[in-house]
Design brief:
Blueprint: H1 3-14, H2 16-28, H3 30-54, H4 57-80, H5 89-110, H6 117-146
Length: about 150
């Protein structure tokens, strides 16, 4: 019995009148409850995707590059002065670079590419383990046949 079922049965035993009221409410508003549950489910999926995207290495690299380009643009603007910073080519180049990197970070965070590193490592370690086991078995069989 899972935790939710156990808690529900406990509530029914302790508060039967309240449990009946909740059951009647759920029966009366089942469509609205179903919509709410679907929305909660979708939101949890979005949150999972966003956290996965935010921890992705490519997103971090692009965000760091965008921040670095913004810092460089700010330094160049201070060096050039307030009046000439608007026409300065280096400031414009750094701002374009920052925009490009920020857009790459946002698009990668929205749809992060799959990570294959752990799968490759798992497959490699499994292949190494199988080959080692095969070699050990072959050595054992050979030693058994010579006796």
């Amino acid at each position: 019995m899972n935790k939710i079922t156990r808690l529900g049965l406990r509530m029914i035993r302790r508060h039967p009148k309240r449990a009946l009221q909740l059951a009647l409410f759920a029966a009366k508003h089942r469509k609205a409850l179903a919509r709410t549950l679907r929305a909660i489910h979708r939101a949890s999926g979005l949150i999972k995707g966003l956290t996965e995207g935010a921890t992705h290495p490519k997103v971090r690299v692009e965000a760091k590059a965008a921040g670095s380009a913004l810092v460089q643009a700010g330094r160049q603007a201070r060096r050039a002065g307030a009046t000439t910073a608007l026409r300065d080519d280096k400031v414009a180049t750094h701002l374009r670079s920052a925009t490009r990197h920020a857009a790459n970070a946002a698009s990668t965070a929205r749809r992060p590419p799959p990570r294959h590193g752990s799968l490759t490592r798992t497959a490699a370690s499994l292949a190494a383990g199988v080959s080692l086991a095969g070699a050990l078995y072959a050595g054992w069989r050979r030693s058994q046949s010579t006796r």
